[in-house]
Amino acid sequence: MVVLNKIYTRTGDSGATALGNGARVAKHSARVEAYGTSDELNCFVGVARLEATGETDDALSRIQNDLFDLGADLCRPDMEADKDAEYPPLRMTAEQVDRLEAEIDIMNAELDPLRSFILPGGTTLAAQLHVCRTVARRAERLAVLLSEQETINPVAVKYLNRLSDWFFVAARMANNGGKDDVLWVPGANR
């Protein structure tokens, strides 16, 4: 359980922050960049939820919770120490990736195949989901960079990779099942 009685602590005033295991690192470290970007993504998902309804809103709610799980995973280094931790650290699981894949397959079955790249836009929700897609890709790139420097849970990278695909397909669904996708016309303004 998390209890936050005081929001500011002044412990980060020097440019360092605490990780999930208590270690202090620079706020610009690869690990903080990775989980900070997943937090940024969560905020954009919250904005998208302002337009979402029904199953899409339900799915986005699950994704927001997953993104907190992802942040908890990424902020906790040293997976080898997990077995000795007082409380087992929260780690992303293959089941979370599998759920995204199943949801992608269900949505994609309702869409016509793409015959062109699409431009971000269409409905407000679709445009917001495209922003989520690109921020998820950035979070993935940062997690991959972190994985080249330190050991991380490989499922975290898989989750982000699948999540950006989920946002792409969900954006098409938000565009009237793909019928209102904005198609790229190569060289249209030459």
TrEMBL record:
Keywords: ATP-binding, Cobalamin biosynthesis, Cytoplasm, Nucleotide-binding, Transferase. It catalyses: 2 cob(II)alamin + reduced [electron-transfer flavoprotein] + 2 ATP = 2 adenosylcob(III)alamin + 2 triphosphate + oxidized [electron-transfer flavoprotein] + 3 H(+); 2 cob(II)yrinate a,c diamide + reduced [electron-transfer flavoprotein] + 2 ATP = 2 adenosylcob(III)yrinate a,c-diamide + 2 triphosphate + oxidized [electron-transfer flavoprotein] + 3 H(+). The keyword Cytoplasm applies. Gene3D superfamilies: Cobalamin adenosyltransferase-like. The keyword Cytoplasm applies. Signal peptide: none annotated. Its main location: cytoplasm. Belongs to the Cob(I)alamin adenosyltransferase family. This is Corrinoid adenosyltransferase. It comes from Sulfitobacter mediterraneus. The lineage of its organism: Bacteria, Pseudomonadati, Pseudomonadota, Alphaproteobacteria, Rhodobacterales.
